[in-house]
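User: I want to check something. If I give you two sequences, will you return the structure for each one separately, not as a complex?

Assistant: Yes, each is folded on its own. Here is the first sequence with its structure:
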Amino acid sequence: MTQPAEHPIDTDLELAFALANAADAISRDRFRAVDLEVSSKPDRSYVTDADKAVELAIRTLVEQHRPDDAFFGEEFGTAGEASRQWIIDPIDGTANFLRGVPVWATLISLAVDGVPVLGVVSAPAFGKRWWAEAGGGAWLQEAGAEPRRIRVSGVSDLADASLSFQSIAQWDDAGYLDQLIDLSRRVWRDRAYGDMWAYMLLAEGLIDIAGEFDLKPYDMAALIPIIEEAGGRFTSIDGLTGPWHGTALATNGLLHEETLTALQLD
């Protein structure tokens, strides 16, 4: 039986920050550790001891402070049934983490009735944390600086847009390579920034379109409130809302419909 929290945390955003702080303390210590333990999961993706430790620490805090809420984590699955569910990716970008590449973060979201209403993306190797809560705007805090509100770009023409596509192999495996190549010829610039970073660049207004395939809800849930509160749009590649459809297309909003049309299969 879970013991009641000694110091109750009143708001969900305060709890999300506490979860992120606990995650950062673990992941920062294990990043580039010479004794990092790495293994393969049944789907052939990698998992480290840091992934597992972060998720367990977050789950323990959620059980202490929100015992009636449900939980969904990448490494240990679901717990409980409730309209409120914390959705966690302990380390998004594990392949980067285990190679010592600093593009990784802990993704924390609260979904109510399946709709993400709060998201925190904490990237301690960058010294950055992004967050948003429904109706409260999107925010970024960098190490040593005050939080600042962020906003997507005002780019309205594909010819002026910057696109991030994750990887050519991923789009090829999904059967969308021709659409990606066609879109890349229509935009100003294309790069593969990868993982959560592309979406946070979009929320900051630094790129305009990001998309990828083969995703799970915990890969997307924390991103959605941040992008939407920054003024952007987030759907699946075929235009469905929410993190439940296995693909992602995020834009500054102005380019969304045109990009959806460009990516439709013949």
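And separately, the second sequence with its own structure:
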Amino acid sequence: MSVFTQKPAVFQADVILHAFDWPYHKVTEEAERIAQLGYQSVLISPPMKSPDEEKWWMRYQPQDYRVIDNPLGNTLDFIAMIEALKQQKIKIYMDVVFNHMANESYLRSDLNYPNQTILAQYQAQPEHYEQLRLFGDLSQPLFTKIDFEAAFPIKNWLDAKEVQTGRLSGSDTDPGLPTLAPTDNVIKQQQHYICALKKLGVNGFRIDAAKHLSAQHIEKVWTPNICADVRVFGEIITDGGVGSAEYEIFLQPFVKHTSFDAYDFPLFHSILNVFEHNTSMKSLLSVAENGQCLAPDRAITFAVTHDIPNNDIFRNQLMSPQHEQLAYCYLLGACDGSPLIYTDLNTSNDYDSLGHPRWMRSWYDNNLVKMIHFYKHVHGEPIHVLACGNELLVLLRGSIEAAKGIVAINKSNEEFQVNLPVAQYSVLLGGDDLLSQHTLTIPAQSGLMLMA
């Protein structure tokens, strides 16, 4: 596989708000505030025809690419959202689901998409659906049975061919999600879809479940022309970096043979081990040399993704609220990847200590907004270690002679004090009383940020 896109010589800061399962009108309404808080782009759930059900995972079961019509809104709502974000100079990224189509085995035995009922709706309301049409002839199916792989469930998750041709299914009795084959028609329709969305103003695409797409499929769809002027990044879930079988089989080839960006699961697991499994903070100084992170210009960094709180099999990777904040302090203070900030409308049914839905308000939390400001201020600056131990990490961004900022993280239950290089500092994150002359007090279980 060899896929190339143009990338800037110097990568730019890009703080991404993952507005997970937000209706398009909510993104439209919040566009101005999103910009004011410092976000530079928004990632939204897949815009397409999908089942009219409230369950979030139904957004990942495509019925038709040619129409946007789902519980989050329709094509007209989508266009209004893009215009609102464009006015605020906010880029829009969106999920694309190219591995499979919706599991409709309970309705029918054929593999025509969309199904006959939906095609009849198109014909019954031609003017309405013409307004929603992105491309193509709505009187004909998008896909038929010749566009799918043979039906069998994935059982060996370390067999690349099986993972990329088998079906995602919940059990031996679940027929699963029909897996698309890279036929000429599939490639053509997926490219038409991308081009139509680019024409509307979409700036980037997140390839959902990218490990399930073969190298051949990716190379055929994502040509240089298709990728021009947009950011493309893949979601390839692994349990670590170099030394992890999932990394070696799926993520490493994706990174090596494409120029696409990717979710930095190796770094995530390094952070998770530090804050939830008592690994030393010292390990974070060697993630790059040990192959436990992606290159910063290609890394989508995160403390939580939508799968972690919303899928039972991933909830063991959920950090405590306090540790999640410390993780963001590290990601926004010490890393130059593109941080993905997760928010939802309480799909997970998790609550914070005050009884509020945990991720509904977190995206505009005052401390997080300060971290975003710090990230944009120090992005790309050199890193110097001022102090590091099993429980403590203090880093200077910039040069010792001309510091830009300092980030300090203490995960222990005791406070620390460190001496700082001589400079004028102001406390951005934390209390002003923690800085006396050039001595910084770092309270237990806290993250601090100073501007120089």
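Because they were folded independently, the notes below concern the second chain alone. Confidence is low (pLDDT under 50) at residues 1-10. The CA atoms of residues 339 and 363 lie 12 Å apart.
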